[in-house]
Amino acid sequence: MPLWFPRMTDETDTEKTVSFGFEEVSPDEKVSRVKGVFRSVASRYDVMNDLMSAGVHRLWKHDTIAKLNPQPGEHLIDVAGGTGDLSKAFIDRADRAGHRRGREAAASAVVCDINDAMLDAGRARGDMAAYADRISWVCGDAQCLPFGDRSADALTIAFGIRNVADRAAALSEFRRVLKPGGRLAVLEFSHMTVPMLQKLYDTYSFNIIPRMGELVASDRDSYQYLVESIRRFPKQDAFRKEVGDAGFSGVSVTNFSGGIAALHFGWAV
Length: 269
Ligand SMILES: C[S@@+](CC[C@H](N)C(=O)[O-])C[C@H]1O[C@@H](n2cnc3c(N)ncnc32)[C@H](O)[C@@H]1O
Hints:
The chain is an alpha/beta fold. It has helices spanning about 10-15, 25-40, 45-55, 55-70, 85-100, 115-125, 165-175, 200-215, 220-230, 235-245, and strands at about 20, 25, 75-80, 110-115, 135-140, 150-160, 180-190, 250-255, 260-269. The chain has a domain at about 40-190 and about 235-269: Rossmann fold, CATH 3.40.50.150. The chain is built from 10 helices and 9 strands. The strands form 2 sheets. A 7-stranded mixed beta sheet has the order 5-4-3-6-7-9-8, sandwiched between helices. A two-stranded antiparallel ribbon has the order 1-2. The chain starts with 10 loop residues before the first helix and ends with a strand. S-adenosylmethionine binds near residues 79 and 81. The site of S-adenosylmethionine has 19 residues, from helix 2.
């Protein structure tokens, strides 16, 4: 073929790839490998969260729910909800708001996760028994949510959006299921805003976290994926734009712990 002749591309040349940690894979492969990661760590997931963050993830989740300001009677969809931390916190806070005003508190939540093993681990938690009639557990994909249009007052996704192969599809689903005026809260690991601490953070993430994963969850690779996937996630402003482009208004960013995590909050219109 002469050099000037345009090269024909075949299917595989043009197939879209997405990041899985530092690797580039097809979207389908990402979905299946992410499922594998969380199936593997499900039974030790909560313990590892506390260990890795020295419990600080609880503060980030607390502040996320405070920003959502749940009210009695509201319904939350907690996407990639895993073992249900945010759903439980949402109901507790709505109950407190209701008691303060002397009203009957009946907020509810559905934990939606692509992984049965994570949902099973959540349902088995001792502290979830008291919420049996308020929290339901549904297996589903963020990119194609099994819920009706305008069915929720609030939607959360904590440490989940980074794992989704097609973020635009997921954000469009979030908008579809939220009522007009509904609130979206995306809590995710993000990028340090304090450059002096970057080296320390990198050393901790790349040297300590995978070793912890190996010791506590017998799974080094899943925690290696965690730290790599954080580096591949868009920076705060770029993700804020993605949320705005999906049709959310008034999108704000709150950095936690110097940007180790960030909360993107927006309103469905
Ligand atoms: C790091 S865990 C977060 C769990 C919980 N939100 C928390 O903050 O503790 C990420 C969760 O996302 C789920 N997940 C990954 N991809 C998903 C998708 N496409 N749709 C729904 N859930 C997904 C995983 O199964 C896992 O339970």
